[in-house]
Amino acid sequence: MPNQFIRTRLLIGDKPLERLNRTKIAVFGVGGVGGYAVEALARSGAGALHLYDDDTVSESNLNRQIAALHSTLGQPKAEVMARRVRDINPDCQVEAFRLFYLPQNADEVDLTQYDYVVDCIDTVTAKLELVTRCTTLQVKIISAMGTGNKFDPSTLVVTDISKTQGCPLARTMRKELRKRGINHLKVVYSTELPTSPLASVDYEPLETTDTRPGSAARRDTPGSTPFVPAAAGLLLASTVVRELGQF
Q1: Most buried residue, 139, 168, 211, 236, by CB count within 10 Å?
Q2: So what's the pLDDT on residue 197?
Q3: Domain 3-245: which topology?
Q4: Which residue has the higher pLDDT, 220 or 18?
């Protein structure tokens, strides 16, 4: 493998790196959480990355998303991150897919091709569909729970969804998955209780015409910082890397 991974090799050796180089990983959602997961996977030596996201970079993303720069405003996030991956590791086979994953278009994605799926979607409908399909197909998946309205990255943990508490998204996912006969799911979630956004802040969503399920135009907008989403993305990636590298 290229010498750029020499510092990683000092920690884990050649065989884990070779195993990572043979993997194909899908990341669904490359925003505040998913963007950092993609970054870490690329720097860890993942052989192939498929990035799924239909959103474009907006000004409100600049405070926390790695794809968000003034130079990338208006550009598709998946394509921005794909370019970044190629610049980090030209040997990584990365593809960007402009897709807002939903039950209606889920058949367009062949999940069986992946060694691991990283779920960084922020809508319940899409998350449930992705988790259900991966579970049925026995494809490994790890899901990010809520990172909005939180400040403390030290409260993030990797656990089974059955052990989560205090996270509204995890609670909803847990309930809905049980209805589908799914009692276990590996997740990254924060034990920190969410803080209510300040009512005095005048926030007007930029994507006010977007009426897709779960879009900013259809739900309350959470507050967010650079710390918790980024740390969640790194924790997701580190879990995937350790499992696929088998070290």
Answers
A1: 236
A2: 80
A3: Rossmann fold (3.40.50)
A4: 18
